[in-house]
Each structure stands twice: as C-alpha cells, then as structure tokens.
Amino acid sequence: MLKFYGGFEIDDLSGGPMTDEDVSIAHVWQITSLQRAAFQHFPELQNFSLSNVALVDIREALLGLFSGLSQEMHYTVAAHLRLVPALEDDDMQAVDALYPKELLVEVMVWRNER
Questions:
Q1: Can you give the pTM of this predicted structure?
Q2: Would you give the DSSP letter of residue 10?
Q3: Which residues are bridge partners to 10 per DSSP?
Q4: Any idea what the Cα angle at residue 73 is, between residues 52 and 109, rounded to 5°?
C-alpha cells in the first residue's frame, strides 16, 4: 500500500498531480544530483557518478551499487542525501542499532529508483 501511495507524485508548489513529463524531469534531476554528489564527495562511487542515468536508475543497479558499501559509508551517503539526520563522529557506534544496513539500502534505493 505504501508503494502505491509513495509513487503518486504531487507538485510541491501547487498540490496538484504531476504529469508524466514532470515526473520524468524530476527523477532525472534527482539522479543527476546524486551522481554529482557521488563524484564530489564519494570516490568509491565514481563508476556510478560517470554512468548514464538510464543504466543506474533501476532497482537492480541501485541495489548492486549500495549493497557493496560499508555501514558507515551507507550512513554517510544517506545523511548527505538528507534521508537520515547527520551524526557526530563519536555517535557512529549507534548507527548499527538505529539504522541497520538493510534499512539504509532500501531507503536509498526506494528514493532513487525509477
């Protein structure tokens, strides 16, 4: 049920439904923003940042990309994307308990998949 309503795109300014073209433009902008952030801040994701959007916005590609990262890197990327709150360096021990790796991967994939 969440997947159905989560996929219903609403314009942030007008509150009305978005057209298919608007949804596509917003999605490409979101993926390219993620690629720019990956290129600038995360050298481990260089292959992703230089790839074509059509190759990396599908669920399987995103799962492969995010599954290979460490727990700390998952959290750092998710925090950079503002999906989770930023923590101080000394709080990183609590990340495993608060945000399991599987949860972080699923949130990042769900947020960025086509």
A1: 0.72
A2: B
A3: 17
A4: 50
Who's near 80: CB < 8 A, 6+ residues apart? 37, 41
Q: Where are the alpha helices (DSSP H) in the chain?
A: 2-6, 20-41, 46-49, 53-56, 59-67, 71-80, 95-98, 101-112
**79 in helix, strand or coil?**
helix
Distance CA 57, CA 11 (A): 21
Q: How far apart are CA 94 and CA 84, in angstroms?
A: 13
Which residue positions in the chain have pLDDT lower than 50?
none
**25-32: long-range contacts at Cβ-Cβ below 8 A with a sequence spacing of 24 or more?**
27/57, 27/114, 28/53, 30/112, 31/56, 31/57, 31/112
Structure confidence at residue 7 (pLDDT): 62
Do residues 106 and 114 lie in contact, with contact meaning Cβ atoms separated by under 8 Å? no
Please tell me the predicted confidence (pLDDT) of residue 30: 85
